[in-house]
Structures are given as structure tokens and as C-alpha cells.
Amino acid sequence: MAFLVVMFLPILVLLMGLVLNTGFVVLARQKMSSAADMGALAGLHALDLEKLYLGQRYVDPEEGSALARTWTLDNLKASFPTAEDEDIDLVARVLNPVTSRQEGGVEDPTVEVDLSLSIELPWPFGRIPGVNLRVKARSAVKERE
């Protein structure tokens, strides 16, 4: 009996570490997704209300990108306080129907956030460096039906 315990104990420890790390990755992706969603929604606050009054839906690209980037980074830093700036790759852009026809085009003004983060996984014998996670989020201004 003692032989079996000694033989299977390392396997049990490795499996436990694998389960914990899988849970950590799922939780990290969910937090990243929430941060990217918040940034994409915040970017829509740059909607030009004067043009909207005239019936045109237009989001200011500079202001929308800046808002999306700021909100995404603030929420990401709150979820991952130990994340370094070099571990974060964030692209926030605004696509308007008039300006994005050459880029594949969109029907509605859209804010797009593409977020990548390199994290370290906890392990009983140290840390596993360099696990890369990536999420994307989009939000658009739709016309009322």
C-alpha cells in the first residue's frame, strides 16, 4: 500500500497543478474579456451627438480609440495588478462606415478592442512564464428599428 502511495503521489500533485492552472487561465480570460468589453463600450461615448441629431451615426476615431484604450487598461490593471506594461498588447480602433470600406467595411460605427496579455501561471515548484492569452471585443452603434 505504501508503495502505491509513493508511486501515485507525484502524479496526483501534477494533476492538481494542471487543474488549478486551467482554472486560473479560464478566470484570467474572463477578466480580460470583461476589460475588453468595457473598453469597447466606453469607446462609443465618442459618438458625435451633433451628427446623430442630423441622422448620421459617427464615432470620433481619436477620442473613441483613446477612451477604449484607457478604460480597457484601467480595468485590466484592476484585475491584474502585477501585470507589466510590456506584457500587455492592446489595439483599440474605431471603424466608421465611411472610412473603413477599404478595410473590409462595417455597416455601423464600431469600436474594436484587441487585447493580448502574457501571464505567469502559479505552480507548486515555481511559476510557468509566458502563457499568452488573447481576447477581442466589438461594440457598434445600431440604428433603431
Gross geometry: elongated
Helix content: 40-55%
**Strand element count:** 3
- pLDDT averaged over residues: 86
- Poorly predicted tracts of residues: none
Sheet with most strands: strand arrangement:
1-2-3
Secondary structure tally, helices: 3
Describe the structure.
The protein is an alpha+beta fold and 145 residues long. Helices cover 46% and strands 26% of the residues. The protein is built from three helices and three strands; from the N terminus they run H-H-H-E-E-E. The chain has a three-stranded antiparallel beta sheet with strand order 1-2-3. Strand 2 and strand 3 form a beta hairpin. The chain is elongated and about 80 Å long.
Keywords:
145 residues, alpha+beta, 3 helices, 46% helix
What topology does this entry show?
Blueprint: H1 2-43, H2 49-53, H3 61-79, E1 88-95, E2 110-123, E3 126-140
Antiparallel strand pairs: 1-2, 2-3
Brief digest:
With 145 residues, the chain is of the alpha+beta class.
